[in-house]
Amino acid sequence: MPGPAAPVPPTRTGRGTRWRPPRLGLAVVSGESMLPTLRPSDRLLVVHRRAGAPHPRAGGIVVARFVDGTLTVKRCVEPRQTSSGRSGWWLLSDNPERGVDSRHRGPVADDAVLALVVGRLWPRPRVRLARTVL
User: Fold this and answer.
1) How many domains does the chain have?
2) Cα gap 131→89, rounded to integer Å
3) pLDDT by residue for the chain (134 residues), tens digit each?
4) What number of other Cβ atoms are within 10 A of residue 77's Cβ?
5) What is the pTM of this model?
6) Residue 11 in domain
7) Which range of residues forms the domain containing residue 86?
8) Which CATH number characterizes residue 107's domain?
9) 3-state secondary structure at position 25
């Protein structure tokens, strides 16, 4: 499961500093590219990025848009420059045999990383309970 996102920094306004709450959203996983971390139909809580919002972190899971318009859920590996020289991210699938990612499409521009995944809402996070022997 992804780690917590960085806190949202305050934004400057003409009258000083004002805190803006994060813009939350939902994403639904389709496909098997993020197995075993995420499964098809998992519901994810995401924080949308905007000016002053948290930046992706290496190891975090994000919602991004490939150049062809495809929305995708992938893991951030490291910052990289795109072919046009813009800052971007190298995004990979957790299940490389099933996913299309930066190995196929190249780095994703920083502004095409739309949201940070902060948790899975449904199904509830999987917890393995130890069996008690009496």
Assistant:
1) 1
2) 42
3) 555 555 545 555 556 667 777 889 999 999 999 999 999 999 999 999 976 667 899 999 999 999 999 999 999 999 999 999 999 999 999 999 999 999 999 999 999 999 999 999 998 766 555 554 44
4) 16
5) 0.78
6) no
7) 21-122
8) 2.10.109.10
9) strand
